[in-house]
Amino acid sequence: MNILRSRLDPAWIRSTLNPWVMMTSMSCSKVMLSTLPPEPVIASKKPYKVELVGGKRYSWCTCGHSKKQPFCDGSHKTKAPGMSPHRFVPEKDSTVWLCGCKYTNNPPFCDGTHKSEFIQSSPLAEESDVKS
After folding, report:
1. Going residue by residue through the chain (132 aa), what tens digit of pLDDT does each one get?
2. What's the Cα-to-Cα distance from 75 to each of 84, 93, 112, rounded to whole Å?
3. How many CB atoms lie within 10 A of CB 52?
4. Which of 16, 30, 83, 130 has a CB 3.0–4.6 Å from the CB of 63, allowing a cystine?
């Protein structure tokens, strides 16, 4: 009985759990409560016409928050944790249309998804940022 009582003592709990709580709080700055993947915001309801250089590595923004659309500027680190850019290297110099709505089935290239009612009726990233 004394063992149970001593382990229920607040001093024992603090001394035993406090180092663990402190270590956990330092290593985990943000807890994600949802198991669903994060959803991108719509940066543009039209694709971006871009000149690509063959052999160069590009990072296409997947979250929609980048100020350097259609390319990544690192905004996903704070505004969309869990998302990362889509990296690609074109084989040759080319002019392409990169997706602006972020819902393409052929990333990073536009596949016409932006024409859907879902995209056309949704707010753009800037509009949703202002409302938040």
Report:
1. 455 555 566 666 666 655 554 454 455 555 556 567 788 999 999 999 999 999 999 999 999 999 999 999 999 999 999 999 999 999 999 999 999 999 999 999 999 999 999 999 999 887 655 444
2. 10, 27, 25
3. 18
4. 83
* Pair 55, 94: CB distance under 8 Å: no
- Write down the residue that tokens 């753009």 correspond to: 124
Identity of the amino acid at 114 = H
* Token code pair at residue 73: 């500027």
Direct distance between the N- and C-terminal alpha carbons of the chain, in angstroms, rounded to an integer: 54
